[in-house]
Amino acid sequence: MGVREQDCVFCEIVAGAGEARVVHEDEHTLAFFPLAPATRGHTLVVPKAHAADLWAMDETAAQRLFHTVMVVGRALRSVLRPDGMNVVNSAGAVATQTVFHTHVHLVPRGPGDTMGTIWPPKGAGFRYEDDAATDALAARLCAAIVRRPAP
C-alpha cells in the first residue's frame, strides 16, 4: 500500500477502515465517491501512499495518479454523458485544500448543477501590471523549466 499517515481520513479509506464507496482500485491508486458530492458521479482519486499535496509526490507517483484520473474520468464520461467535467486539485489551504492527502476531484457537470463556478467573475481576476513584468516572469519560468532534470 505504501506510506500511511496517522489521522489521515484518506489513508484510512485506502486501508479499508474509512467509509467510502470505491469505484476503482489498482496497486497504487484508489478512486471513490466523497461523502458530500458536489454533483452526481463526483469522484476522488488518491494515491495509496500518503503525500500531503501534489508537490510532495515524485514523478512516478504523479504519473500513476493522473493515469487513474484519465481512466476514471473516461468511465464517468461514458456512463454519465455529462456536458463537461471539472478536474480539480488543490494544493495548500489557501487553494481550498482541506484534506492534506493528495487528491483529484472529477466533477461531472451539467446545466443547472449545484457546483457553482470555480473562477472569479469576468473582469475580477488577476491582471499583470505591465508587459515587462509579464515577460520577466515568463523568462524566469522558462529558465526554471529548462534547468529541471528529466524524470
Per CATH, the superfamily is: HIT-like
Spatially, the strands of the biggest sheet line up as 1-2-3-5-4
CATH class designation: Alpha Beta
| Helical residue percent band | 25-40%
Domain module count:
1
Number of helices: 3
| Shape, per Cα inertia axes | globular
CATH architecture: 2-Layer Sandwich
Task: Write down the secondary-structure element order.
Answer: HEEEHEEH
Kindly identify the CATH topology.
HIT family, subunit A
Main sheet summary: 5 strands, antiparallel
Question: What proportion strand?
Answer: 15-25%
Q: How many β-strand stretches?
A: 5
> What's the Cα radius of gyration?
18 Å
Mean pLDDT rating:
89
User: What are the segments in which pLDDT stays under 50 over at least 5 consecutive residues?
Assistant: none
**Distance between termini?**
23 Å
Index terms:
HIT-like; 151 residues; alpha+beta; HIT family, subunit A; 3 helices; 17% strand; five-stranded antiparallel beta sheet
What does this structure look like?
This protein has 151 residues and is an alpha+beta fold. The chain has a single domain (9-118), classed as HIT family, subunit A. The protein contains three helices and five strands, in the order H-E-E-E-H-E-E-H. A five-stranded antiparallel sheet has the order 1-2-3-5-4, covered by helices on one side. A hairpin with a 3-residue loop joins strand 1 and strand 2. The model has no long low-confidence stretch (mean pLDDT 89).
